[in-house]
Amino acid sequence: MRPLPSPAIPIDRLLNKRQVAEKCGISMRTLDDWVKGRKIPCIKIGRVVRFNWPAVEIALRKFERKSI
Questions:
Q1: Is residue 8 part of a domain?
Q2: What is the number of structural domains in the chain?
Q3: What's the pTM?
Q4: Is 54 domain-assigned?
Q5: What is the DSSP string of the chain?
Q6: pLDDT of 6-63, one tens digit each?
């Protein structure tokens, strides 16, 4: 089970799936795959999925490739 968001993150600052997909320039299906593969953190309550954007950015940085 994933931990709950820090109390320092106001609930109104969380993004929904469409907003994150648009920011990343990907389809919602790709985002679903990333969530299912636990590549990015999310907050799931029942069928509602929300994202803390700073945490998503940190997770995505792990996949950056360094130029030679």
A1: no
A2: 1
A3: 0.77
A4: yes
A5: -PPPPPTTS-GGG-B-HHHHHHHHT--HHHHHHHHHTTSS--EEETTEEEB-HHHHHHHHHTT-----
A6: 556 666 689 999 999 999 999 999 999 999 999 999 999 899 999 999 999 999 999 8
